[in-house]
């Protein structure tokens, strides 16, 4: 990555600006993913979880989770002089679906993060991108206690078309997160 250019550089250089949505279920690592790749301090709308989330937000396998995104996350990643990505992390809970839909409007595509401990929680996000006809890739975020499955089994469980990229990543690793994002971008270039 290069050093942070100013807004003026973008306008003068004529770089193309592209929106990419980072989606997925509650607690799957979207905020972490955006923060890991952003070349600027990311915008976050994380708020402490309250008693109101008891029985609504599933904390199984997430004992240390104490905050949740209530709006969106935003980060910026300069690919080169011609392309700058705006990464928008959308909230994962169904009650924020309207924010997800508005965030996805005008996006090039979406990277849906999934967690093998809770694959069924990915269905809402996958349904949204398919309903919106938004091209997407799926990245299995590899948590330390996540079970591993064969790619064919994951594709079947998630009902993924053969052409949809499916990769594994670690949202805490810049290199790994970048590889997942690259899989999406390469796919988008084939459409």
UniProtKB/TrEMBL annotation:
For this chain, one GO molecular function annotation is: hydrolase activity
InterPro entries xrefs? Gliding_Motility_GTPase (IPR052705), Gpn (IPR004130), P-loop_NTPase (IPR027417)
**What are the record keywords, sorted?**
ATP-binding, GTP-binding, Hydrolase, Nucleotide-binding
SUPFAM superfamilies xrefs:
P-loop containing nucleoside triphosphate hydrolases
Q: Which Pfam family name is an example for this entry?
A: ATP_bind_1
Record CDD domains: Ras_like_GTPase
Per the similarity annotation, which family is this? Belongs to the GPN-loop GTPase family.
PANTHER family per record: ATP/GTP-BINDING PROTEIN-RELATED (PTHR42708), GLIDING MOTILITY PROTEIN MGLA (PTHR42708:SF1)
What is the name of the protein in this document? Answer: ATP-binding protein
């Amino acid at each position: 990555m290069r050093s942070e250019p100013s807004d003026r550089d973008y306008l003068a250089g004529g770089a193309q600006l592209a929106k990419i949505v980072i989606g997925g279920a509650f607690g799957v690592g979207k905020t972490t993913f955006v923060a890991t790749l952003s070349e600027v301090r990311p915008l976050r709308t994380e708020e402490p979880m309250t008693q109101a989330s008891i029985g609504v937000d599933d904390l199984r396998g997430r004992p240390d989770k104490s905050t949740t995104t209530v709006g969106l996350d935003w980060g910026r990643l300069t690919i080169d002089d011609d392309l700058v990505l705006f990464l928008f992390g959308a909230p994962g809970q169904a009650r924020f679906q309207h924010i997800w839909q508005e965030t996805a409007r005008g996006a090039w595509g979406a990277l849906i993060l999934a967690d093998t401990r809770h694959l069924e929680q990915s269905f809402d996000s996958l349904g949204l991108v398919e309903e919106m006809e938004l091209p997407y890739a799926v990245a299995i975020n590899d948590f330390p206690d996540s079970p591993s499955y064969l790619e064919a089994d994951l594709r079947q469980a998630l009902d993924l078309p053969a052409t949809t990229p499916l990769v594994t990543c670690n949202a805490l690793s810049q290199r790994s997160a970048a590889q997942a994002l690259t899989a999406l971008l390469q796919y988008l270039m084939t459409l």
